């Protein structure tokens, strides 16, 4: 027996069996991972419903509040899975942050933004999309908002599954519009507001992409293409970090801290200028010290942009938590308000417990399902390094300020992804320009075949078309789903 166990053929068989068990264990783990996420999500939704029942069990409509709370939790999970990727994707794609660190930072700052600066007053029926007087009774309004919340959550869930970052705010807007049309007809819709939202489909990504490309051009022309890159970086990196600090100071003053303090545009810009100048002065000795001993090559420059990129991602998450979360859970607050008071015409303040649902739901959704979209935004549209990702983050803050100044509605999701596209398309244009310039200097240089030229594109066209299509159909798709849900609820439940 011992001889048989020592037989090399027996050992080879044992190794093969162990390898099979190891592969089976890995496959089981891979297959069960999505089930764990679904299980944790379901537990969170159920716990939210139980908590709502405990706190509002004495309410005149406890079942409605419980169902609405569960839908709000489901919506928050989808926000974490989809929307947050726009802030953290560039930093992860540039390898300035690991996936775990990005998720940790996003969880902290998204939650802080939602709980500290979120919950600004939301006008009844999602900021004037539907005329309140057209809805009629409070019960009809409640079913309409319930349909809007469910349709928006399902649409964002579907978009996450196919790998398309979409605007959760636009999803909610589409849901409210669809339910409003089903309840009161097309005349109930505030079409001027909807036309502005439709315009933002074009304005947000184009403006974000143009500003990101402009900053990348500045970095390339003033730093990367210089003979002494390190000396150029010592001059320009403090300037760029100062611009970033000033832009984010103005951005947070305008958009992220509305609940704490009201700031007009001129005051926000003044705050940004002061903070930008201070940070610029502080960064001069810091960058000089960091650049000591660095080699005169592009790889060395990446270390100088790492920390500013991480800070910008954290600030974007805070501002997103303060803004978009309130918009997404607004229908839940409207349902609770209408079920308690029966009034659908006044402005609604989002209760703290609703914001807590939003904050925790975002955290769970990001942790469980966020990595897929983070990888897509950060590395599958175009290749990012710290300098390119920095341009994307900076463009997000600057675009919001410019749009606010011009009075244009914009989407943070569209801005961030548009910035990624802008960086990628600018790199394509710049590469073609440099090839053309080199060919003028060396006419005998062979030209690329059409197939090779297509292969060398720096932006993946398949992702570009998928994302654009998802953006275009977000509002009508959410509206159609919402109208169907409202009809079903009104027919079989109401």
Automatic annotation (TrEMBL):
The chain crosses the membrane at residues 36-57, 63-84, 96-118, 138-160, 172-191, 197-219, 231-253, 265-283, 304-322, 350-369, 389-406, 464-489. The keyword Cell division does not apply. Keywords: Membrane, Phosphate transport, Transmembrane, Transmembrane helix, Transport. The keyword Membrane applies. It is found in: Membrane. Coiled coil: none annotated. It holds the Pfam family PHO4. It is a multi-pass membrane protein. Belongs to the inorganic phosphate transporter (PiT) (TC 2.A.20) family. This is Phosphate transporter.
